[in-house]
Structures are given as C-alpha cells and as structure tokens.
Amino acid sequence: MDSQSNPSTRPVSDVMIRFDRVVKKFGDNVVLRDLSFEVEPGEFVTLIGPSGSGKTTILRLLMTLERVNGGTIQVGEEYLSHMEKNGKLVPADEKHLRKVRRRIGMVFQQFNLFPNMKVLQNITEAPIRVLGQSRDEAEEKARSLLEMVGLSDKIDAHPSQLSGGQQQRVAIARALAMEPEVLLLDEVTSALDPELVAGVLAVLREIAETTDITFLCVTHEMQFARDVSDRVMMFDRGQIIEDAKPDKLFTDPDHERTREFLHAVLDRA
Ligand SMILES: Nc1ncnc2c1ncn2[C@@H]1O[C@H](COP(=O)(O)OP(=O)(O)OP(=O)(O)O)[C@@H](O)[C@H]1O
C-alpha cells in the first residue's frame, strides 16, 4: 500500500487537516461514515455536494462545535479529541481544545459581528483578549487588514452602517487578525445580495494567493471554487465520492452523481 492511500502512516508534517475514519451521527442519522481525507499545509480545498450531505458538519467538527462518534481528527500534529500525556493518547481537556481551536479561524454565512462595537474593535477584541496583544499592536494589525479587505474608510463605522458585503469583509479581517493557520469558509457569500458577492470573493482570492493559510471551503459558487481551489472534493451521503483538481472535476467528472450535481447547480445559476 502506498503512503497516499493510508492516511495514518503519512508523516504529520505533510498534513494540516486529517480526518481518519470519522463517524458522526445525530441520533439515528449517520451524517459522516468512516470519512477519511487530508489537506496539506497551504492548500485551498473546496467541498461541494448536495444540501444535507454533511459539509457544514465537517467544519463544525473542526471548530469543536461538534464531537466525533468515531475516528480521529488532527490539525497539524494535534488531535482534536485526544491529547498526548506520558506517551499515551488520552481524551482532550478544555485547555488542549482551546489550543487547537486557536489555530483555526472560521467565516460563516452570517457575519456575526459584534453589533455594539465599531469595526476596529470588532477586529482587535479577540487578539487583545485571547492572544494577549497590546492595543497598539492589535490596532496596527487591524488597520493593515482593513486595508487588505478594502475598508480602511470604515474603521469607525458600526456594523449596522455597512452593507452585507462590507460586514463579511470585516468578518474575514477579524478571522485573520487571530493569525489562523487554517481558515474555514462556510457559504460566506450566500447571505449576500448578488452584486456584493464579487467583492468578498476577490478578497478571499487575494488572501489565498498571498498567504500560506490552509483553506477548507464550503461553497455553491462554482466559478470561485474552480478558480481558487487546488482541489475540490465532491461529497455525497457522508462520503467523498470524488476528489480532483478543479479543472478535471468541473469539466470531466468521473462520478455520475457529480455530473448530476453540477448540472443542477449550474442550471440554477
Ligand atoms: N445539530 C444537529 N442536530 C441534528 N441533526 C443535524 C445537526 N446538524 C446537522 N444535522 C443533520 O446532519 C445532516 C448534514 O447537515 P450539514 O449541515 O452538515 O449538511 P450540508 O452538506 O452542510 O448542507 P447545506 O449545504 O444545506 O448547508 C443533515 O441531515 C442535518 O439535518
């Protein structure tokens, strides 16, 4: 068996995210069935698939908002559900979970900004409280991030004074301020008016191209997925049925379900 086909024998330094035979159930509903996949450091991987197939569940497991019912998840060399103690794997405690969680940022469909804080404070709050940065350091970083997302002039605005697209760009800046190694994107444009989508996608594209952050992205924006992803995984009924480079998957998929899904999505667009 080559090392590619057996995730558990590959050196961990090659892998930023590893799901190894993960099972996730909600009651009798088995959402993920022995799911295994890996994402390399710096890769941009997109998950596509029908509604309800378990894509968001994958991201929520990585954020430790859900727990696995079987199998293991690793971020870099660290397990989410377990930690190493005296050479043995034991169940993770809260401190360990916080440490792993800190490596991961997430941007949601709903921007979830703090409504009572101005844009600047929305971005500096967590770096000051969680990373222990000084206010000056956090504000300097926030200013450069706001420039990156094209919102330098909104630094003193409140979220309610911004468009949805601008709020989402603040949410992206806020996630980046925590210096994540992994950024999870969950349908980040689906709550936006169509004319605001391009601005948000352009920002994400720039971040993907100019940083070494590892991305795991769930989206229905097929053109974006095709342009930005290193790999696209087609997900159906709790399993990856196809995992390929975007040009291959979008033009010549191997699996009939992928073909049907792409037709359905592109017909709707
Ligand atoms: N907290 C929960 N309790 C019970 N069932 C849940 C919960 N979260 C998700 N599910 C179920 O798990 C399945 C997968 O949901 P998930 O949100 O991961 O799918 P998805 O592929 O992201 O779908 P969509 O594209 O519609 O967001 C669905 O059947 C859903 O009803």
Quick take:
The chain has 269 residues and is of the alpha/beta class.
Strand percent estimate: 25-35%
The domain tally reads 1
Mean pLDDT: 90
**Based on the structure, what is the oligomeric state of the protein chains?**
single chain
Can you say what the CATH homologous superfamily is? P-loop containing nucleotide triphosphate hydrolases
Number of helical stretches of at least 4 residues? 9
Give, in spatial order, the strands making up the sheet with the most strands: 8-9-10-3-11-12
Report the order of strands and helices.
Answer: EEEHEEEEHEHHHEHEHEEHH
Return the structural class.
Answer: alpha/beta
Q: Work out the radius of gyration.
A: 19 Å
Mind explaining what this structure looks like?
The protein has 269 residues and is α/β, with parallel strands linked by helices. It has a single domain (3-103, 180-268), classed as Rossmann fold (3-Layer(aba) Sandwich), CATH 3.40.50. It is built from nine helices and twelve strands. It has helices spanning 55-62, 94-101, 119-129, 135-148, 164-177, 194-210, 222-228, 246-251, 256-268; strands at residues 17-26, 29-39, 44-48, 70-75, 78-79, 82-85, 88-91, 104-107, 182-186, 214-218, 231-236, 239-244. The strands form three sheets. Strands 8-9-10-3-11-12 form a six-stranded mixed β-sheet, sandwiched between helices. A four-stranded antiparallel β-sheet has the order 2-1-4-5, with helices on one face. Helix 3 packs parallel to helix 5 and helix 5 runs parallel beside helix 6 (194-210). It starts with 16 loop residues before the first strand and ends with a helix. The model is unreliable at 1-10 (pLDDT under 50). Bound molecules: adenosine-5'-triphosphate. Adenosine-5'-triphosphate binds next to strand 2 and helix 1.
